[in-house]
Every structure is written in C-alpha cells, then in structure tokens.
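Structure request: Acetyltransferase, GNAT family, Hungatella hathewayi DSM 13479.
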Amino acid sequence: MAICEICGGEMLERVGCKIGICDCNGKSYPRIRFGAEKRFEDVFGEEDSCPDCLAPFGSFHHFGCDIEECPVCGEAIYGDCKCDLVFPDLEDLVIIKRAEQDDLQKILNLQYLAYQSEAKLFNNPDIPPLKQSLTDVVNEYQKGIVLKAEDVKGNIIGSVRAYSENGTVYIGKLIVHPERQGKGIGTKLLINIENEYPGCRYELFTSTKSEKNICLYERLGYAIFKEKEITEELKFLYLEKQN
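Returned structure:
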C-alpha cells in the first residue's frame, strides 16, 4: 500500500471514473461511479451520451487509472489529467481549472464570504481582502494566474491566485466556501497553482492567528522565514517553499 507524500498516512486504493463533457450543455458527468469490482476497461463504452439531453459526450478529462486516496488528508494520486480532482461521491466532485475574466465577480463574492472568519478573529470588518474591488481582482488576474474550483453544478467553491516575479511565485487569496472547507479543496488548489509554476520558489503569508492555514502550509512543505507586525494585534507570518 502506498504512503501519502503529504501526511505520511497509508493510501486507500479506489477505482475512479472517467469524466465526460456534454457537447450540448457543457456539463461534466462521470461515465462510471466508484466501485471495487469493475475496472475502466470493463465498462468504457457502456454510456456514450449525456443522461440529461442524450447529446454525445465531447472531450474527456480523466483517463483510466486506479486512484489512491489518503483517508487522513484526502490527497489523491492519480494518472493522466491534472485539472480534475475525483472524489468517491458525485456531490463531492471538484474540478480545478483556470478562471476566466467573467468568473472574477463570483470569485470576489466568494472572497468576501470566505474572509468573514478572518475578520472575526481580529474583530475588524475592514481587513484588506474585504476591501478589494473588482478592479483590484482584474488587475491581479491580468498579472498572473487565477484558478477556480467548481462543483459538479458549475458553482465556484474555491479559488487561488498567483504571479511570478524574479524567480519567486507569490501565492495569495486561497479561499474555499465555508460549507466546503475541510475536504481537501484548499490543498488541491495550492498544489495546482504550484504546478502552474514548476521548479520555482513559492511564497505566501497568513496571520499568526490563522492556525488552520499555518498547519496546511507546513503540511505541504512550506516553512516560516519571516514575521511582520502590522499592529500590536495584527501580525503576519511569511512562508516559503523551494521546489
């Protein structure tokens, strides 16, 4: 049994699914569900059309392979495609891909929602992420890369953004919808944004009070290298990772 590179736990072997994109409505559908008895080569070809509109499937993102998933941190190691993250249940299916400019208002709305907990930590509704405008986000989009995490219905439930400068990739605004936190989405977003900039030094920061964020970053190989005091109450930890 394989060992999870993230947390060191034993990986569970699962049989995954192939994801079809309907030519008619653009929705994603798993061709097969998870199961222990059938492998991909045994079932491919049984379903050739969208269950909603019967239009043929277009391109496929995820190809046949066994999926090993860590029961502790939810990290999955799989085969061919880097843009799909496959979970055992359809409602937990998450697709991570680059955001389009039309997505930015929804991402900003999610940002406002996700940072409410941070604002409560400091009893301050005016923290910078809650003061950003759409123009600010557009500028960041044009400067670097913004990723989004979508559920099976196409709702944006997470995002992260980054840009590269002088050999360092600066990562920020790693957000997940409050109702979807704790399911590995933040981990997958961070890994995917790193994959957009392979072989670089990565840097990010978080407040000293954000214990869950610090734990996540350290688990993924980041190390604290600097602390910055903004006020007596507000301090930031800067973390780095070198690939």
